[in-house]
Design goal:
Elements lengths: L1 E7 L3 E7 L5 E8 L5 H19 L3 E7 L2 E2 L6 E2 L11 H9 L3 E5 H12 L7 E7 L3 E7 L2 E2 L36 H5 L1 H12 L5 H9 L3 H25 L3 E5 L8 H9 L11 E4 L6 H7 L10
Parallel strand pairs: 1-4, 4-7, 8-11, 11-12
Antiparallel strand pairs: 1-2, 2-3, 5-6, 8-9, 9-10
Helix pairs in contact: 1-2, 3-9, 5-7, 6-7, 7-8
Length: 304
């Protein structure tokens, strides 16, 4: 049975078809219709129809998107495609596609992809964290996404940076309305903001990393602060979940030194005499979201 995964983003919509063994059979990517709810639905339906026609078989459909479904109202909330917020997208797509559709947060899909056949394959508990323009995370336990009673499990980025130093309080204002959220410190823009405050220079995160690797003192200091903050933030996760594996995605996950520096630091805050949690780079990269959407349907639950 084929699984179709769809990554519904603000700028692009991607579909992938996975065989039973996880191998890719098909992949398509199109620009997302801008702020047009009906056109977005029509595009998804057309992508599924054309893919099924090409492959000659019907498949399950899973969708990953920023935001989450309200368990109370069944409406999408928190999507960067604003026209989707407050809309019954799951029910509408199930009617149009004539089958059950599973929808989950894109960070949950990232974690599920890496737990299923990525960097966290075979681990019982996987915490997947996306360190990009924002900070999202997902939790996978024994191969299943932990959604939670309020469908917000894994919203690690919107907790306060733990063990904050005096100069980190109250912290930058976050779009969620709070101050000092983890996202404001360990996202790419968080590193850029911190470097500008310390050095007076407005640089992209990648340039700060490049300069640090070249020995620039100010950039090195900024990256060291970043590593210490990430270590504190992830130690909180270890104290709470004690995951086997933490997998990083997003732009900041490509900083090689994080995988040695952060585990070297986090023992200061983890409530244990040793820390065996593995910190790993993503295996599937930008494909993790769409592959994770497909994996929302385990083989044993795929309808025929």
């Amino acid at each position: 049975m084929i699984r179709f995964g769809i990554d519904l983003g603000g700028t692009k919509t991607e579909i992938v078809a996975l065989a039973e063994d996880g191998s890719e059979l098909l992949r398509r990517r199109l620009p997302t219709p801008r702020e047009d709810y009906d056109a977005i639905l029509a595009q998804i339906v057309a992508l599924v129809a054309s893919s099924e026609s090409e492959l000659g078989t019907r498949g399950s459909v899973g969708i990953g998107t920023p935001g989450s479904l309200s368990l109370a109202a069944g409406m999408l909330r928190g999507s960067n495609s604003v026209c989707l917020n407050g809309m019954p997208i799951k029910a509408e797509l199930e009617r149009l596609l004539a089958r059950e559709v599973r929808i989950n947060n894109d960070a949950n899909c990232f974690a599920l992809s890496e737990a299923s056949d990525g960097a966290g394959r075979g681990a019982a508990v996987v915490f997947g964290a996306i360190l990009g323009t924002g900070v999202g995370a997902g939790v996978v336990v024994n191969g299943s996404v932990l959604t939670g009673r309020n469908a917000i499990a894994g919203e690690w980025g919107h907790n306060p940076l733990p063990w904050a130093d005096d100069d980190e309080r109250p912290g930058p204002r976050c779009f969620c309305g709070q101050h000092g959220c983890i996202e404001t410190f360990v996202s790419g823009p968080g590193l850029e903001r911190d470097h500008r405050a310390a050095s007076g220079k407005l640089l992209a995160a990648g340039e700060i990393v490049r300069l640090a690797e070249a020995g620039d003192a100010a950039a090195s200091a900024s990256l060291q602060r970043y590593e210490r903050r990430l270590a504190r933030a992830l130690s909180h996760v270890i104290n709470l979940l004690d995951p086997d594996v933490i997998v990083l995605g997003g732009g900041m996950s490509n900083v090689d030194r994080l995988y040695s520096a952060v585990p070297r630091l986090w023992g200061e805050w983890v409530f244990s005499d040793r820390v065996d949690t593995a910190l790993l780079r993503h295996h599937h990269g930008d494909s993790s979201g769409v592959r994770g959407a497909a994996w929302l349907w385990p083989l044993s639950h795929i309808p025929t």
